[in-house]
Amino acid sequence: MNSGLPSTSGPRHAVIALLAIGYGAFLAFVVFWPSPIDRPVAGILNRAIAELHERGVPSFIDYGLIEACANVALFVPVGLLFGLMVPLRWWPIALLLGPALSASIEFAQRYLLEERYATVNDVIANSIGATVGVLAAVLLRAVVAARDERVIDRHEARRAAASAR
What we know:
With 165 residues, the chain is an all-alpha fold. Helix content is 76%, strand content 0%. It has 5 helices and no strands. Helix 1 (9-31) packs antiparallel against helix 3 (63-85) and helix 3 crosses helix 4. It starts with 8 loop residues before the first helix and ends with a helix.
């Protein structure tokens, strides 16, 4: 059906692999840092939060909420990459990979890093981020597949018109 069209799968897979390696290295740096990653700036963060509260920001916006949002944001790219790496028909499997990775990280922090804290809340926040990322990947892949179909249809129509002449 699409003979004569160049494949874009190879370059896409190479870019995804490079992004996965890069983000994996960054994630490993963050999660396996021997002490809490925010320790050097904890005082600044607490002062900034107190300052925000004095300026009318609701008190429920506290360090815990900011940390949870950071954990969600940290794992959105993880889910996105998982969602782009697995075959599209297996995307539900990608939904399981984020929580599994998060639980493994928390387990390692609990037993390998004396100064780090492993919590179920971190697993939940990371899992939410990974799920958002997987769903974004599925949406992105659907949009790209629809675009590819239009390009292929247009190419075949032009080829048919040229051969009819």
